[in-house]
Amino acid sequence: MLSVSRYEGVSFAPGEALGYQPAFHPTSKIISISEIRRAATRIAPYIKRTPTLIDTYLSERLGANVYLKHELLQRTGAFKVRGAFNKMLQISDEERRRGVVAASAGNHAQAVAYAARILGLKAVILMPEDTPDNYVQKTLKHGAEVRFFPSLAYAFDAASSFESDGYTYIHPFDDRDVIAGQGTIGLEILADVPEVTDVIVSIGGGGLSGGVACALRSLKPSVNVWGVETRGAHSMAAALDAGRPVELSGVTSIASTLGAARVGELNFELAKEYLSSVTVVDDSEAVSEMFCLLDKAKVLTEPATSCTLAAAERLREKFGPDSHVVLILCGGNIGLDDLFSLRT
């Protein structure tokens, strides 16, 4: 019998997801599959078509056919460029002349800076003062102007003043064009593994999980899309538990790139519509699986990525020999100092 724990208002049981089982309505138009297909065509010249490869070790370990979607090979080392390009390629000429602004402490910052450089736009990135130096340096390398704030919340608040000055705000997740861009990953998974039965995807603000789940379940409704968060960055689990988006009192997980204290309204609706569940795992599980992926699969991920393997372990009873399970490796931008500090 599974014991149920409470954590800052979030109830969950190991291997389960708050008892949450959404109804699936294939007629939903929250984000349409046509938007995602148009996004795929639009961004194709600017992104990498990343591979989805079966992994022998993980397949034997989980007793299923397990694949890794190597999105960490994407430009800037994470999936975020898909949404950034899709958004920026649709703004007007006048908006392009004025520039773009984004608030981020991680992969979104690099993505917006990179996309802006490729498209010839000015970019201002608003970062919290405790942003890891590797993220700051890579963002600066792409030519963006970086401004620091006491916290990410202050950075988000400051974005409105830049909008007032004419900058186009590129939201990291609560934007339909950004979500559609991230959803193109789902199209690639279906093309590479048409027999896919299950996909496990990380949730930060919910843009990646929402877009991917929409793409997959619009085209193949039988696919289960399992969301995963780390404890201390469980904003979607908290929202589903409460029945509405709620604000976490603080983000305490080491998975900093999952650090959205509140999910977006659109992202919440997509989760309710398309996700089969949300599993909350511990930081320690994510770190352990990060080193497992490095050792066995020879890929260096972030804890915000390796948590998918931790979730797969908890969900393993739902898989069998005929299952085709895809883990999305959404990012690999961990600095060496941070990596070594996590090694115990």
The radius of gyration computed from the alpha-carbon positions, rounded to a whole number of angstroms, is 19 Å
Q: Using DSSP, what is the number of strands?
A: 12
Number of domains: 2
Order of helices and strands: EEHEHEHHEHEHEHEHEHEHHEHHEH
Portion in beta strands: 15-25%
Q: For the residues shown, what is the average pLDDT?
A: 90
Quaternary structure state of the chains depicted:
single chain
The share of residues in helices is 40-55%
Structural class: alpha/beta
Q: The biggest beta sheet, please?
A: 6 strands, mixed
Q: Going across the major beta sheet, what is the strand order?
A: 3-4-12-9-10-11
User: How many DSSP H or I helices?
Assistant: 14
CATH topology of the largest domain: Rossmann fold
| CATH structural architecture of the largest domain | 3-Layer(aba) Sandwich
Q: How many angstroms does the end-to-end distance come to?
A: 32 Å
Report on this model:
It is a single chain. With 344 residues, this protein is an alpha/beta fold. It has two domains: 8-78 and 176-342, Rossmann fold; 80-169, Rossmann fold (3-Layer(aba) Sandwich). The protein is globular. The chain has helices at residues 33-43, 56-62, 80-88, 93-98, 107-119, 133-141, 152-164, 176-192, 207-219, 235-242, 265-274, 283-297, 303-314, 336-342, and strands spanning 5-7, 10-12, 52-54, 65-69, 100-103, 123-128, 145-149, 168-169, 198-202, 224-230, 277-281, 324-328. Helix content is 44%, strand content 15%. The model is unreliable at 1-28 (pLDDT under 50).
